Fold:
Amino acid sequence: MWFDPAETRQVGHTPDYRFSLANERTFLAWIRTGLALVGGGLAAAQFLPPLPLRHLREALAIALLLLGAAVSVRAVDRWVRSERAMRLGQDLPASRFPAVLALIVGLGALALVATVVIQNPSK
Structure:
């Protein structure tokens, strides 16, 4: 269903275009978030100095890249599920993904703060 818009249009009735366009804007916002995470992963791999814990820089870069990929895949899934629900007159699908993503990013930021403090204890 992700790659065949005609299949999505065969379900239910056409919703108000404002809602479909809002759904698309939400999708694009998630894609921007995924791209930002991928960019952060590439920046971490290229520009961070070696960190005190062995391979921490590489682990951070890989985690950001994987998270960016997961966000992008989740974005298209959410877009299709929301469009289908609107066409069928159902409630929009609930998701824990935004909360999980926020927790992961927050924990990652705390880990980086701890790394900076460990690396530069005298400053």
The first helix runs from residue 5 to 9. Residues 11-119 form one domain. The chain has a mean pLDDT of 87. The chain has one domain: 11-119.
